[in-house]
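Task 17 of the worksheet. Students: predict the tertiary structure of the chain below and write it out as structure tokens. Keep your answer in the requested format; marks are given for formatting as well as content.
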Amino acid sequence: MTAVDVPRLTLISGPEGVLVERELTSLAARAREAAMDVVRVDAAGYEPGSLLIHASPSLFGGSTCIIVRDLHEASDELQDDLMSVLGAPTDDVYLVVTHGSGQRGKRVLDALKKQHVRVVSCPAIKNDREKSDFVQQEFARARRKITTDGVRALVEAVGRDVSELAAACAQLVADTEGLVTDAVVDTYHGGKVDATGFRVADAAIAGNTPEALRLLRHAIASGLDPVPIVAVLASQLRGLIKVGSAGRGSPEQLASSVGMAPWQVKRARAALTHWTGDGLAAALQAVAAADFAVKGGGRDPVYAVERAILTITRARSSA
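Model answer:
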């Protein structure tokens, strides 16, 4: 690989750390393959003038790739130095800048854009629809296939943290062969608290009192905390309310507006046939009371969750 294969100017824009780090790793590897020196400059603790030193021509020749991280936190001195480098570009300096969000660093961003910078977007991955899309993209990058239920199971099991989700995708790609299904995901991640919480919530919302209580007691016996289980119950009920209020449209059309994946919209619609507005209100109130109890407001957190489950299943059964 030659130096010309590395972009002269690159802006990595967005707050999603997993995507930012992936792009930085790729660019740094490409630069080193092109026999460049790779220098990292962090906004935190920046010493004025150090960027200019790195950008100065080397006595031994060769090119340098300078990675400036977190422009959105940059001091005025770092911004001034970046403007100086951009104002006097040289053939042997390649610049990579990361910017999370906000207006700080805008003059540098404007200067980069005027010089036709290559922009890599790394938007935040927040809701379940975005996490589901991320999982599908991860498997597509690895030229592997995962079923819709497999995506659902993985997001439910490890979807709280995107970096953990990325690691889980990589593990499944490395350790398995063929189509990845929900059963495969369950083999690796079925014991995690999020997965357990979703199983409890699924059983409760389906009105299956014995199964919901059995899963809850098994989870508690395994050492899991009631707090995230209550959080999943609340999230599932709020999902039903969102879908119920969203009106008509295909799951694909509604997914974006409610912040859910299409498969979640389909499942919520199926569940809603057994619920009334009053039943959902009663269930949500019960979960709110349980949330207060498990976070220190009650004497027996486990009993509080059990009582919430009983209220949910009765509210559904009476619909």
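Marker's comment: Residues 277-297 form the longest helix (21 residues). The chain has a mean pLDDT of 90.
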